[in-house]
What does this fold into?
Amino acid sequence: MPEALVERPSSELETQPPSRLEQMGSMSLVEHLEELRRRLVWSLLGIAIAFFACFFYASRIFAYVQRPIMQALRDNHMEQTLIYTNPIEPFNLYVKIGLIAGIFLASPFVLYQIWMFIAPGLYRHEKRYVVPFMFSTVGLFLAGGFFGYRIVYPQALTFLIGYGAQFKPMITVSEYTNLFMTIILGLGAVFELPILIFFLALMGLVSAGWLWRNIRYSILAIFIVAAIVTPTPDVVNMCIFAAPMLVLYVLSIGVAWMVHPSRRKARAAQA
It folds into this structure.
């Protein structure tokens, strides 16, 4: 009897990778919410543990945090001192520093929880991509923070301090730390744009063609976001913010093309 007409055993059929819709359809809304709650709890627990670990080294970490403002004050020949106006401010400062460092430290664990939440919706042969996903996601987040710390934040401080050179600055540690958190964490989140597109394309909500056709509107939106996020009103700093976002958007088009359901189904059929 020809091989094509032989009925395959049920055990062989069970080894075929189920589709995303089959897997997602097998879970109820309550099960989805329960899984989401579990991943959120584990993520918050990881951040809390990392926070307490970093809190004890907050003073050492702040020595690196204050380097950009100290350099900007030094370049403008001003007194290199930050002040506080409330006795509790130094304690709040170290709490914020511990939180920032804790988020960066716990980011691999948090991103792994995100992967575990979406993994049931992947084909079996796609689950091996967990390592590239982790490295790319953590790498992009750290790259965004590093870009802000080394390039964007020093440029912004140099502009702002120099613009008010005729006045004596009295910068509080709280105000400085809030600005630092906004820039560093904001850029870390912005650099996750390819990962956001990864999820949207994985669900079939966007495609590479759609992203390319709307690139003009995306460029406009990127410059609007850059104008909002940048702490200075000058065009140079806005372009510094926007440039990596444009590169990441182009990269996201390639990501969307690779993970779109149509491409995934074609690869699964070939496998």
Residues 28-189 form one domain. Residues 96 and 212 are 40 Å apart (CA to CA). The chain has 13 helices and no strands. Residues 1-22 have pLDDT under 50 and may be disordered.
